Amino acid sequence: MTDIADAPRAAPRDRRDTKDMAAAPNYDLLAGVSLRVSVEVGSTSMTLADLLAMTEGSVIELDRAATDLLDIYANGTLIAKGEIVSVDGRYGVQIAEVVAPDRGLAGFDRRA
What we know:
Blueprint: H1 19-23, E1 37-40, H2 48-52, E2 70-74, E3 77-87, E4 90-98, H3 101-107
Antiparallel strand pairs: 1-2, 2-3, 3-4
């Protein structure tokens, strides 16, 4: 075979027949994509004057109780809730609840 014209031709495929592709999604294609994962302990609003008045030892009160689950975001989109754990002297977050995709889209809670 020295010419592309001599190559055997594949059977023509109907592009409207995507049933096979939908049945077995190829997640390996996305496996190497990097995401920014962040965890939000809580938040608050304050004036600039209050912020400038802070000194060492000042406490900022957040809008969440210490027993509440933390929000876990991937690229700014809420994906799960979890709690802080300590493993070998380092902090981590144990996932307690994965946010359902329909719930995530309904509220579409996104952080910058």
